[in-house]
Design brief:
With 393 residues, the protein is of the alpha+beta class. The protein has helices spanning 13-18, 21-30, 47-54, 68-73, 82-96, 98-120, 128-145, 152-166, 173-199, 205-210, 218-248, 251-259, 264-274, 306-309, 344-362, and strands at 7-8, 34-36, 41-44, 60-61, 125-127, 280-285, 289-291, 294-296, 301-305, 364-368, 375-377, 383-386, 388-392.
């Protein structure tokens, strides 16, 4: 027996931005796929249902010309399936090979983190969003992409504008305008360095795209770089802030992690499970389907809600708590299947093994400020937008 898609219409978009988790639980308990009027999407929120969708690209397609991401960023390999998707990923392989990460990128990431912490440590207090996480993520991504003469603040603005546009489910015209304007600026920054990367092959992403065989068309390069600027900046930025928040709110866990460096990767993975930086990503129903008893019509717009699935109490015990030492189970913060995030190993290396340990080593007795509590916001993309802290300088 199949049933029609249930509808929830008494939730506002602002409810989702401020705290989506009660809504996510309600959707999970309502059904495997539920149309949420506030987002104009059919949300899939259960862990097992999302993994089923990810395994069936013929039914649940990433290609969707009507999607917000396509509108803002243009054609990208992330919004393709099968051979086209794999070809796009292969073009980036040289930038993300283990040897490139270890020998080329790790020293650069380490230097960036060291320089910023050298300047920050003597001050004794800061909001770590603008003072540390945003510049670290931006400067690291600038190196990865291969941009030159772009301020970290500019790249951070582009990233926020693009992810706001890609998650603009409220259909706000001003958000769309700012996102499209940022996209044009990204195109100009790409054009400014193309000749350099053609003449100077390197592990940089732009170099990898230009030197693949055959070279990637310029429109695809532009679209792919925009997607990378979105997810490749906000995900490590928000993962770092979430990891710090989780540990300072749980001093016993912080002490155990600091005492045993092998626990830092666990702290990172628990952070992105607890508050998933990329919380929703789209799929299009390419042919009539039934998902766990719910009939989905052809053309339906799905939102695969990793942020909800990563707190699915059918899979995780006490899912709303940050617990580095919980029973180890895979999560969906980096997606799954063929679309598993290509940059996940870079994020794990940079944030989990380099930056986070340095932060707690250099900012001694790191703690929240009672008079200025942290602020976490977002629906499709979520993370701390303010993390005021103190430490012993």
């Amino acid at each position: 027996m199949t049933v029609a898609v249930p509808v929830i219409s008494d939730v506002t978009y602002q409810d989702l931005v401020v705290d989506p988790y009660p809504v996510f639980k309600r959707i999970r308990d309502t059904g495997p796929a539920v149309f949420l009027s506030a987002a104009n999407l059919t949300l899939v929120t259960r862990f097992e249902d999302i993994t089923e969708v990810e395994r069936d690209a013929e039914t649940y397609s990433s290609y969707n010309p009507a999607s917000l991401v396509h509108n803002v960023m243009g054609p990208t390999f992330m919004r393709r399936d099968g051979a086209d998707h794999q070809a796009g990923r292969r073009s980036l392989d040289p930038s993300f090979r283990p040897a490139a990460i270890k020998e080329h990128w790790t020293p650069k990431f380490d230097a960036i983190a060291g320089r910023l912490l050298d300047a920050l440590a003597p001050t004794g207090e800061a909001d770590l969003f603008p003072a540390l996480a945003a510049p670290i993520a931006s400067l690291s991504l600038m190196e990865l992409i291969g941009f030159r003469d772009v301020a970290w603040e500019t790249l951070a603005h582009w990233s926020q504008a693009l992810i706001d546009g890609g998650g603009n489910y409220s259909r706000d015209g001003e958000i769309e305008r700012i996102a499209l304007e940022a996209g044009k600026s990204v195109d100009e920054a790409i054009d400014a360095v193309l000749d350099y990367h053609r003449a100077n092959p390197s592990p940089a992403i732009l170099s990898s795209m230009l030197h693949t065989d055959p070279p990637m068309p310029i429109e695809e390069i532009r679209g792919n770089i925009k997607v990378i600027i979105g997810g490749g900046l906000n995900e490590p930025r928000d993962a770092l802030l979430t990891l710090i928040l989780g540990l300072v709110q749980n001093p016993e866990q912080k002490e155990r992690v600091q005492a045993s460096p092998e626990h830092w990767p666990l702290a990172f993975d628990e952070a992105v499970r607890w508050i998933s930086p990329i919380g929703v990503y789209p799929r299009r129903v390419a042919r009539p389907a039934v998902l766990s008893g719910v009939a989905l019509p052809e053309g339906a717009q799905l939102g695969l809600c990793a942020g909800a699935a990563n707190r699915d109490d059918r899979r995780f015990d006490d899912p709303d708590s940050y617990d580095v030492f919980r029973a180890k189970k895979s999560h969906l913060a980096f997606g799954s299947g063929p679309h598993f995030c290509l940059g996940s190993w870079v994020a794990r290396q940079n944030i989990g093994r380099i930056v986070a340990p340095k932060v707690f080593e250099r900012l001694r007795n790191l703690r929240l400020r009672e008079e200025a509590p942290p602020v976490v916001r977002g629906f499709a993309f979520r993370g701390p937008v303010s993390l005021p802290v103190r430490w012993d300088p």
